[in-house]
Amino acid sequence: MSMIGSKLKNIRKANGLSLKELSNRIDGKISISFLSDIENGRSNPSFENLKLIAAALETPVSFFIEDSENNIFSNAANDADFMHVINLLQDFKDWNIEDKKELLYYLKAKKVIRDNTNI
User: Fold this and answer.
1) pLDDT single digits (tens) 76-104
2) Which domain holds residue 70?
3) Vertex 53: Cα angle to 65 and 17 (nearest 5)
4) pTM across the whole model
5) Residue 108 belongs to some domain of the structure
6) Three-state SS for 66?
7) What is the pLDDT of residue 67?
8) Mean pLDDT (the chain, rounded)
9) Domain count within the chain
10) How far apart are CA 67 and CA 7, in angstroms?
11) Is 118 inside any structural domain?
């Protein structure tokens, strides 16, 4: 499976979409079989098709083409649960301040707990 294919499959699944639903989001401009071929490494999308796919998944094109070896989240693309969290955070800038604080307090508390249990 190609890097693009595995990332596509994981983010599609994290969004709870079937290949058919993804194809429908792209107004059928990319067939279900071609999407399957991309996911399974049998084909590579053109940059134009990759832009359509990224837009349908509300994900930047760079997500699919960045070098995962240099990315601190290199294994994240292979973790559907993590991708679901990333999708939930896509609109973080639009959250109200209380929700942002709550999330940040939770993360800080989680770090303190983790640090204190690894002593």
Assistant:
1) 666 777 777 777 777 777 888 888 888 88
2) 3-90
3) 115
4) 0.60
5) no
6) coil
7) 63
8) 83
9) 1
10) 12
11) no
Cβ partners under 8 Å of residue 3, min gap 6: 64, 68
The CATH number given to whatever domain includes residue 58 is 1.10.260.40
Which two tokens mark 62? 């760079």
CA count, 13 A, side-chain hemisphere, 64: 27
What are the tens digits of pLDDT across the range 37-80? 999 999 999 999 999 999 999 888 888 887 654 454 556 666 77
Any domain includes 96: no
Residue 102 in any domain: the answer is no
- Rounded Cα–Cα distance for residues 114 and 25 (Å): 41
Our measurement of the distance from residue 36's CA atom to the centroid of its chain's CA atoms, rounded to an integer in Å, reads 17
Q: Which residues of 55-94 are buried (b: 16+ CB within 10 A; e: fewer)?
A: ebbebeeebbebebeeeeeeebbeebeebbebbeeeeeee
Let me know: does 50 contact 61? Beta carbons within 8 Å. Answer: yes
